[in-house]
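User: Here's a structure from my thesis project, written as structure tokens. My advisor, Dr. K., wants to see whether a designed sequence matches the one we expressed. Can you design one independently, without my sequence as a hint?
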């Protein structure tokens, strides 16, 4: 067999050209080559192993494993909680009311946040780079903005629905009909879509910095960075976060005033009853007004809403203006907003009696042991043997 003679300058020149090409390659067709890395492949034309293609190896940093476990625990709980709410509403006839249409829409939005949004976000945090398909970046960001906005707007609609049911209970069924509730939900989802897919896919969110199209525009590693302009940050954040927060706070203030008025009325009623009946009637003889319970529920809704989304609103505006927010702080506030989708299926069902009854029946059906234990504890014989009070 013949041998090919290659001079040393030719080898050095070939390696230099290949190294230069590899250093200048950017992400194309979801293939990324990083700087200062020389990769070798078989080139039998000169009997040498010379690199012409780069195979990117994705490694999970060890410090991100614990973070990934926490994030996927949050994701799992978010998905399970919202699936339980959806199943409860759709399978129980008593829960298929106009008021629960808003809760059903909220659970659907939160379920999509837990699956479509949070899972890719968690993968991105674990690997420290965007490992999914290049074209999916802009789609994922659009779903992120749309679904989180829809979740926030649905929370606002629930606050409005609770406000009307408390302030005008006799006119509630004539004000909030199935058709009007459907129109309200369509408006909320329409605003969410219009503020997300339209500007993001068209690049109007930041025309001068196309980071969603060129994932290596800022860093060597592919990163799906959603960097927004100041006008878009102010407009989108105001419509989908600030205005709903203001509406929820105003409604809670008015409902709390109504609760105080009813509490004063109950106190006056007890004083009058003591005078007329000659008995010392205490507050436990009078049924607690419905408004008080609803006010507490609405207060928890507003607090959870403000605590989870207000930090992101402030951080997003600040970052768009000065670009001075640390990355870890920004990501933490983003995930705090995501956690609202975990809190929602806990707040609404557990503070509503109809949902609690459905949950208890489901638990007894799945685990008969709990029902047997309850009957055992409530039996007359057990009450005599182990009285609760002397």
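Assistant: Designed independently from the structure alone:
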């Amino acid at each position: 067999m013949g041998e090919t003679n290659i001079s040393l300058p030719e080898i050095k020149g070939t390696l230099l050209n290949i190294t230069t090409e590899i250093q200048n390659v950017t992400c194309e067709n979801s293939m990324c080559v990083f700087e200062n890395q020389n990769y070798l492949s078989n080139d039998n034309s000169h009997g040498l192993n010379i690199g012409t293609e780069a195979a990117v190896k994705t490694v999970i940093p060890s410090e991100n494993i614990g973070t990934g476990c926490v994030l996927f625990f949050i994701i799992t709980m978010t998905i399970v909680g919202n699936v339980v709410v959806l199943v409860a509403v759709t399978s129980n006839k008593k829960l298929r009311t106009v008021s629960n249409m808003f809760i059903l829409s909220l659970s659907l939005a939160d379920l999509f946040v837990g699956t479509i949004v949070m899972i890719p976000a968690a993968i991105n945090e674990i690997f420290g780079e965007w490992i999914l398909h290049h074209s999916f970046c802009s789609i994922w960001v659009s779903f992120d903005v749309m679904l989180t906005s829809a979740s926030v707007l649905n929370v606002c609609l629930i606050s409005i629905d609770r406000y009307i049911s408390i302030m005008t209970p006799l006119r509630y069924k004539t004000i909030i009909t199935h058709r009007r509730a459907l129109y309200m939900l369509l408006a909320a989802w329409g605003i969410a879509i219009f503020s997300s897919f339209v500007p993001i896919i068209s690049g109007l969110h930041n025309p001068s910095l196309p980071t969603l199209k060129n994932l290596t525009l800022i860093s060597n590693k592919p990163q799906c960075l959603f960097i927004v302009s100041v006008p878009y940050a102010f407009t989108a954040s105001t419509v989908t976060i600030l205005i709903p927060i203001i509406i929820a706070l105003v409604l809670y203030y008015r409902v709390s005033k109504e609760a105080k008025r009813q509490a004063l009325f109950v106190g006056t009623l007890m004083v009058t009853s003591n005078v007329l009946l000659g008995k010392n009637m205490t507050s436990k003889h009078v049924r607690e007004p419905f408004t008080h319970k609803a006010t507490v529920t609405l207060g928890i809704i507003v607090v959870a809403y403000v605590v989870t989304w207000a930090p992101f609103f402030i951080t997003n505006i600040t970052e768009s203006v000065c670009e001075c927010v640390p990355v870890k702080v920004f990501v933490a506030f983003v995930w705090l907003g995501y956690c609202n989708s975990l809190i929602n299926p806990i707040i609404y069902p557990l503070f509503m009696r109809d949902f609690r009854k459905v949950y208890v029946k489901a638990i007894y059906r799945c685990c008969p042991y709990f029902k047997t234990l309850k009957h055992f504890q409530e039996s007359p014989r057990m009450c005599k043997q182990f009285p609760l009070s002397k």
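When you compare it with your expressed construct, this may help: Residues 271 and 277 are 10 Å apart (CA to CA).
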